Amino acid sequence: MNQEIEKIKKSIEPLRQEIINHPVYSAIKDIDDLRIFMQYHVYAVWDFMSLLKTLQNNLTCTSVPWFPKGSADTRHLINEIVVGEESDIDLNGIRKSHFELYIDAMKQCGADYSTIEGFTEILKNTNDFGTAYKNSGTPKEAKEFVDFTFEIIKSNKDYLQSAIFTFGREDLIPGMFISIVNDLHKKFPDTIAIFKYYLERHIEVDGDHHSHLALQMTSNLCGSNEKFWEQAETATIVSLQKRIELWNGAHREILNKTNP
Known about the structure:
By secondary structure, the chain is an all-alpha fold. It is built from twelve helices and two strands. 79% of the residues lie in helices and 2% in strands.
């Protein structure tokens, strides 16, 4: 299985580098720029949670009466990730999902969270993505990013869901961005504290321990099926391309603010 994992990693490395070195990071010069970035990034945080819960639903028994489902090893892997992502702790030791923590960070730094809040509220009430996108004013790039994730969710192929969860999200926040946030935090500690904490938790939990669990989960689900591995690679490539487009959208908006 390690050979197949390495094959995907090699295949997607150019895209990963494009994301890690994306100009959106160097375009962030002040709090206003960071606010724009967060208004795009929050969609990736939200649909990550949707992808995570889809995997839990598909790989474990979440209905009653309960019956054993799938591999106990795989159940353990996804359940451990869910605990960390859905019920982590915030700066005050209060349990929060990473999405709720991100919304708190947006509120603290003055980012406009009305669009993502409107989107999720409308979607919860209507279950209609088209209406939710339109009525909330979701950016085109965020819509396309979420649409692809839900295309994979609706495929009912757990190995594809696991692949984009594992390779499409792992280790994609560069050190340069961390440095920018740290510098902003020194100037505005009461404005950036929660976002800085979110990034630190992302690196500590998601980027290290959870990434190893997710790699093992994808290996378990693809097994020795060559077709599964090929499809997983293709889906991962598209997911990274959608991430680049999401960053492109944020970058364009930041530049338009600077040069109207």
